[in-house]
Amino acid sequence: MKTKSMLTALLMLAVAWSVPAADNMKAFPPAAAGMVRHVLPLPPQADEFAFKVEVIVGKTVLVDGGNRYFFAGQIEEETIQGWGFTRYLVRKLGPMAGTLMAVDPNAPKVNRFITLGGEPYLLRYNSRLPIVVYVPEGVEVRYRIWSAGPETKAVEKG
Q1: How confident is the model at residue 17 (pLDDT cuts 50, 70, 90)?
Q2: Angle made by CA atoms 125, 126, 130, in degrees to the nearest 5
Q3: Burial class (CB in 10 A: 0-12, 13-18, 19+), 31
């Protein structure tokens, strides 16, 4: 009996992994009013454990060129009921804060992409499922792929 249930579980897992990514989009509901859904499909890699995806959320804003800025807010993880997939949600972006360095008042303002403050938001690389991020209208979602080199180094005994 145990073997039969284990075999059934493995078969269901294999079927779930073989479903194309487009079919997986059925699990991700459309964006609510005032929100936008961003979908990032990842190409397969030979060793996906050597990769991470950095999700970067922000907005292009006209600011002075001398100060550093960031937005308050956070990326939340939610599990989609009935599917077990994770979606990412930014409920609110802002307010914007920054350093207070004196700048030339006659210097022209520049458009800069201002991101959420805090540590980089790194996710496990998984080409079988898209990364789906919901953000308020007018907010951008960007990403960066990080990869580890094949070389490792030993730490000296101390």
Answers
A1: very low
A2: 110
A3: middle
Query: For 55, what's the count of Cα atoms within 13 Å in the CB-facing half-sphere?
Result: 27
Structural domain includes residue 153 = no
What integer pLDDT is reported at residue 150 of this predicted model?
A: 87
Q: If you compute the radius of gyration of the chain from its CA atoms, what whole number of angstroms results?
A: 21
101 strand-pairing partners: none
How many angstroms separate the most distant Cα atoms in the chain?
A: 79
- Would you say residue 88 lies in a domain? yes
**Total tally of structural domains belonging to the chain:** 1
Instruction: Please give the pLDDT value at position 11.
Output: 41
- Model's pTM, two decimal places? 0.80
Report how far residue 152's alpha carbon sits from residue 137's, in angstroms, rounded to the nearest whole number. Answer: 43
pLDDT of residue 5: 47
